[in-house]
Amino acid sequence: MRKIAITILAAVLTVAAQAQKVTFTSEGIEAGVRHHLGLDANADILQSRADTITAIDLSGLGITDLSDIVYLPNVRTLDLSDNNITNVGPLNVLDSLSELNLKKNALESINLLAFSNSYKMMVDVTANYIEDFSYLFDCIKCQFTFIGMNRQQKKDIPYLDVYQLYADVKDKGQPVIWYRGFTNMQEMPVMVCGNTRTDAVIDGHLNCFAIPNTPTSTTAVVLSCGDQSDTTYIVPPANFVVGAGETITIETGLPDDYSVFSAYADYGNVEIDGNAIRYTTDNVVEVIIYFCYYQGETLKGFSRFYLNKVLQGDVNMDGNLDISDVVAIVNYILGSEPSVFNSTAADLNKDSNIDISDVVRLVNLVLEW
């Protein structure tokens, strides 16, 4: 009978704990939990719901005190970046914590993590004020892997730390720049592309800058703040015309210390030759080549080239073979170049000359069309 009573009491206490309303002292942690659970500002946060959270993003919420982390006992992946945390001690109650992002906080020491109940933990400490990690290297209880140890700040030294800066292409071929970093400088960082200067946002989050006046050739983009800067290059999308079965070599215009890392197309054969891309067409009329490029081991950009296959003999590029193409090639040979004239389509015998032999071949093609 006593065992039954104890069992019932334990069950009652468990149900009561699960139904318990959580009261947070940290507005930032509460806001992050509400967002994660999809709760509005007036809804109660029950401990049973908080217990279900195994991964949560609490970045950029102005958090200074981690005492409320006790309400998230099952968290394994925790993002606390871009806050103002100075004490990591409360994190030790998280038995399952394995991935911890402390990037861009106000930490001068994380030695208290040595008392963590976790067995193994990867910790990103980029952009803090930590000078000594040696205490944690000898930690017996938890095995640590640190990211960003060599990227610590000095409170009295201005810095700009850009750890992502690369070009990309949005829909309709609009070049953009993605960037992410930290700075303690008071002046506003700027993006410089040619004659265009645009204020940048360096807040630890991935931001996007659309390039105005789409460039027609490879262009350098500089993200700068004071005397410190980082650079990437835009390879703007471009259109090319190529004959069926032909090979075209496209120069990207990238600097020598850059390299095309990968390139592919849904159809045809793509090869990389240094900073150039070589493509051999097949029977597909329109092809897009997608490629990315690096500087050393750092990703610096994505772009694409659009290829349209030439219909041999379609001199005026209207998509048909007819007498108007014959007239256009004859006028060209006679010295009166038409307003629209595709010399690749006109050189039907591939001898790099446009003459009467091409006219004869074109007439035969028109008769067969």
Descriptive tags:
single chain, 369 residues, alpha/beta, Leucine-rich repeat, LRR (right-handed beta-alpha superhelix), Immunoglobulin-like, 4 domains, five-stranded parallel β-sheet, four-stranded antiparallel β-sheet, 17% helix, disordered N terminus
Strand pairing plus helix content: what structural class?
alpha/beta
Total domain modules: 4
Low-confidence stretches: 1-17
- Which CATH class of the largest domain applies here? Alpha Beta
Structure in words:
The chain is of the alpha/beta class. It has 4 domains: 2-147, Ribonuclease Inhibitor (Leucine-rich repeat, LRR (right-handed beta-alpha superhelix), Alpha-Beta Horseshoe), CATH 3.80.10; 160-234, Immunoglobulin-like; 238-310, Immunoglobulins (Immunoglobulin-like), CATH 2.60.40; 323-368, no CATH class. It is 17% helix and 31% strand. It has helices at 2-18, 27-37, 47-50, 134-137, 323-333, 343-346, 356-368; strands at residues 55-57, 77-79, 99-101, 120-124, 143-147, 160-169, 175-183, 190-193, 196-199, 207-210, 219-225, 228-234, 238-243, 247-251, 258-265, 269-273, 276-280, 286-295, 298-310. The strands form 5 sheets. Strands 1-2-3-4-5 form a 5-stranded parallel β-sheet. Helix 5 packs antiparallel against helix 7. The chain is elongated and about 90 Å long.
In short:
The chain has helices at residues 2-18, 27-37, 47-50, 134-137, 323-333, 343-346, 356-368; strands at 55-57, 77-79, 99-101, 120-124, 143-147, 160-169, 175-183, 190-193, 196-199, 207-210, 219-225, 228-234, 238-243, 247-251, 258-265, 269-273, 276-280, 286-295, 298-310.
